[in-house]
């Protein structure tokens, strides 16, 4: 392993200690066959269609009061309904909360996660400390475990906080969530799998949330190393000289004008001996646009331009945390697109690792420049069976699809189908845009290709396709999905960690493991 650190990077690291080892959550989650002493709040999961809500041990008075209250609230157990009853008669709790789960057999993971997220927001607004979540009204054993784990996962996802830059952070949510389930082993096992996903999402959010001057290429790589190595992931970091020596002039060029030069992060989880699956993520740690400078307020969101790379780091972390039987190599080209007397100029020509010469139609189309070498490196050094890249690549994607769908591009129908399936499972939705007729749009008069063309999202895709050559490949454009200005569903405000859940599920679907 080669780890290169510049003096400036070391200095900055000393000023702003890396929080890689920090614990992301202060809450604790247990699964048990019965309740625990000290419980102050009881949450009952209620399927729709019950005539009366009651748990074993409740007296007639309790059952009567609770059901009168539920009637008054028009609670019928449909999914997402929630009623709180303070000081329930005959019970030793401050509050009783009923959570509607609809028809348990039909409740999908994303909805269960959202129910958990909404519950955690509510709980955080109370003084609840020890919460029993009782799932015993869900009679089907499979649903009992599955929904408990998914709701617990939703609680976790929403409770992440990015507070490392606050001198006096607010207290984090720190409740004990004590689940009463029918099969402790099964629920715990499913929760552990989702907890590994959550840890991957938190890592990606953390990397995304780092401001440009904190999350520069060497710092991003170091953070990934610190968080992945303990899980048995082989991490290799190429510094700027090694990037140049390997011929990756396209990756190098983007940050040649920055004090923070290019790095290439490789994170290899070898959970099987299969041919590797390559994930390549755009790690542009800040996008000023370069000499084609961004002149609108959109520049304020450009710390999020590393979120494709963050998603790859997070997915590799999740898969390693799950000990998944997959061979996956994450490759993250890292750059900082900024200006100085040494920066690339519009119209310059760069030579990529595979020898392709690239005319710079715009210095602001930097994502494809760094991904070109990331994709080539993955292909050349790891001979993967498939390459998926993910990037905040184009504003045109946002114009076309908005923020609820990522655009995907691929000539391989089985990749498109498996990615759509992963998208539905995780609610990280994807929509296919065409590649076929656009091959000529990046032709250049003076070089082999150029980095701009129209339509914009397709130009980015066909550019990347050139570097995937004949390896099966799919491109994900996740522009405008990296950051939220206010909390929503399972996401607190800030970095979403978008792509981690999608890629984690997709790798397992593609590799045929669960
Ligand atoms: N990082 C941006 C894309 C982006 C824009 C992401 C808005 C999230 C929100 C990318 O590097 C970029 O600047 N793309 C240009 C390409 C153009 C110059 C060909 C764009 O889409 O405007
Ligand atoms: Mn740009
Ligand atoms: Zn960019």
UniProtKB/TrEMBL annotation:
UniProt xrefs under Pfam families: Peptidase_M17, Peptidase_M17_N
Protease is among the record's keywords: yes
Q: Which top-level group of life is the source organism from?
A: Bacteria
Could you give a GO molecular-function term held by this entry?
A: metalloaminopeptidase activity
Q: Where is the signal peptide?
A: 1-22
GO BP term (any one): proteolysis
Q: List the protein's name.
A: Putative cytosol aminopeptidase
Give the species this sequence originates from. Answer: Pseudohongiella spirulinae
């Amino acid at each position: 392993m080669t780890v290169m650190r510049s003096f400036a990077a070391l200095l900055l690291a000393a000023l702003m200690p890396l929080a890689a080892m920090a614990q992301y959550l202060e809450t604790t989650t247990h699964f048990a066959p019965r309740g625990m002493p000290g419980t102050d709040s009881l949450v009952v999961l209620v399927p729709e269609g019950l005539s009366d809500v009651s748990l074993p041990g409740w007296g007639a008075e309790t059952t009567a009061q609770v059901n009168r209250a539920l009637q008054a609230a028009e609670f019928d157990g449909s999914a997402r309904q929630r009623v709180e009853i303070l000081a329930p008669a005959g019970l030793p709790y401050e509050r009783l909360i009923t959570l509607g789960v609809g028809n348990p057999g039909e409740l999908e993971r994303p909805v269960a996660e959202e129910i958990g997220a909404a519950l955690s927001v509510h709980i955080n607004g109370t003084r609840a400390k020890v919460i029993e979540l009782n799932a015993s009204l869900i009679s089907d054993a499979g649903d009992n475990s599955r929904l408990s784990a998914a709701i617990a996962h939703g609680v976790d996802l929403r409770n992440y906080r990015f507070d490392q830059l606050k001198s006096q952070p607010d207290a984090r949510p720190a409740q004990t969530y004590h689940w009463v389930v029918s099969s402790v082993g099964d629920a715990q096992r499913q929760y552990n799998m989702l907890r590994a996903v959550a840890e991957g999402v938190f890592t990606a959010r953390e990397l995304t949330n780092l401001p440009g001057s904190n999350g520069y290429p060497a710092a991003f790589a170091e953070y990934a190393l610190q968080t992945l190595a303990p899980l048995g992931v082989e991490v290799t970091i190429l510094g700027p000289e090694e990037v140049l020596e390997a011929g990756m002039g396209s990756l190098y060029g983007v940050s040649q004008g920055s004090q923070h030069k290019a790095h290439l992060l490789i994170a290899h989880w070898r959970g099987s001996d299969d041919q590797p699956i390559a994930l390549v993520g755009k790690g542009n740690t800040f996008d000023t646009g370069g000499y084609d400078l961004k002149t609108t307020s959109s520049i304020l969101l450009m710390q999020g331009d590393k979120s494709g790379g963050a998603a790859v780091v997070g997915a590799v972390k999740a898969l390693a945390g799950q000990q998944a039987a997959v061979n996956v190599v994450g490759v993250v080209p890292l750059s900082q697109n900024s200006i100085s007397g040494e920066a690339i100029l519009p119209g310059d020509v760069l030579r990529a690792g595979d020898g392709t010469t690239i005319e710079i139609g715009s210095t602001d189309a930097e994502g494809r420049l760094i991904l070109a070498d990331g994709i080539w490196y993955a292909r050349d050094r790891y001979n993967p069976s498939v390459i998926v890249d993910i990037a905040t690549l184009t504003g045109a994607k946002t114009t076309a699809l908005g923020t609820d769908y990522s655009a995907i591009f691929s000539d391989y129908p089985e990749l498109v189908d498996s990615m759509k399936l992963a998208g539905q499972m995780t609610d990280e939705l994807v929509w296919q845009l065409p590649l076929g007729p656009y091959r000529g749009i990046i032709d250049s008069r003076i070089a082999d290709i150029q980095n701009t063309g129209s339509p914009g999202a397709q130009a980015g895709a066909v550019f990347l396709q050139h570097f995937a050559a004949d390896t099966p490949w799919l491109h994900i454009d996740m522009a405008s999905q990296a950051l939220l200005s206010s909390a929503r569903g399972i996401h607190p405000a800030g970095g979403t960690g978008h792509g981690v859940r999608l890629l984690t599920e997709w790798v397992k679907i593609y590799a045929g493991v669960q």
